[in-house]
Structures are given as structure tokens and as C-alpha cells.
Design goal:
four-stranded antiparallel β-sheet; 38% helix
Length: 142
């Protein structure tokens, strides 16, 4: 997962040695028949983080509807026996410190995701190639 220092966190870190925030965008693409399983794992992580991880200040799950298995033409491919890729999923996360992110990676729901990725064929690509991005906030508000 990518680690990013936000501009405000960088300034604070320079002033009082506050650790930088961690911001992550992950973009897995499951197999269409495994999409709900993967989403259920991410929902479990989000619920746990909201309730038990005060250092996690954002955990959003987006699904790109334009890549949905119900999109025109996809049903024909499925009827021909072609295994379909599912919708592109975007997970947007923010942790107040690197330690908060490390705590997140030790949570039971996160470990369950890692285990499922290793044991089940959830992704249409190698789990090591999930697009994860270091992001830098340039404008906006929360």
C-alpha cells in the first residue's frame, strides 16, 4: 500500500514532528462471479475500521457502474462460457499516521482479506498487481 504525506501533514510534521498522514487508493478488479464476495470482505473491513480504528478517518468503497456485469454485451460473452471480469472497485483510505495504518493491517478483517486473496480466486489479475496509488491532495474539502 502506498504512503503519502499530505501538504498539511508535511507542514505539521516539520513544525512539531507529527507523523504524516497515510492516503491510499486501491483498485482491484474481481472476477464477475466473485465480486460480491470481495465487496463483502471490504465492507467488513470498513465496518471494523469505523468502529475500532480511530486513526482511520476515511474508508470509502466505490464501484464503477460502467464496468458492471450487467452492462450491454457482457451477458452474451457469459453465455459463450467466457469468464468475465467484474466491476472495477476503488477503495479510498486515509489514516492519521503510519502507525494507524499498521494497526489497520493487523486487524482481523484485513487479515481475512489477505487470506482470501491467497486462497480464493477472487481477482481477475494477480493480487500483487492490484493498482495501489500514492495520492497527493491538491484541492477540495472534507
Amino acid at each position: 500500500m502506498a504512503v503519502h504525506e499530505t501538504p498539511t501533514a508535511s507542514a505539521a510534521a516539520a513544525a512539531d514532528e507529527t507523523p504524516p498522514a497515510v492516503e491510499i487508493i486501491a483498485s482491484p478488479v474481481p472476477w464477475a462471479d466473485k465480486e460480491e464476495r470481495l465487496l463483502s470482505l471490504f465492507r467488513s473491513i470498513a465496518a471494523h475500521a469505523e468502529k475500532h480504528e480511530p486513526g482511520c478517518t476515511r474508508y470509502l468503497i466505490y464501484v464503477h457502474p460502467s464496468t458492471s456485469p450487467s452492462s450491454p454485451g457482457r451477458r452474451d460473452l457469459e453465455n459463450q462460457g467466457t469468464r468475465l471480469r467484474g466491476s472495477k472497485i476503488e477503495i479510498v483510505e486515509r489514516y492519521t499516521t503510519p502507525a494507524a495504518f499498521e494497526e489497520h493491517t493487523r486487524s482481523e478483517p484485513f487479515r481475512a482479506l489477505v487470506q482470501a486473496l491467497g486462497e480464493e480466486e477472487l481477482l481477475s489479475e494477480d493480487p500483487g498487481t492490484i493498482e495501489e496509488s500514492m495520492v497527493r491532495v491538491v484541492a477540495g474539502f472534507e
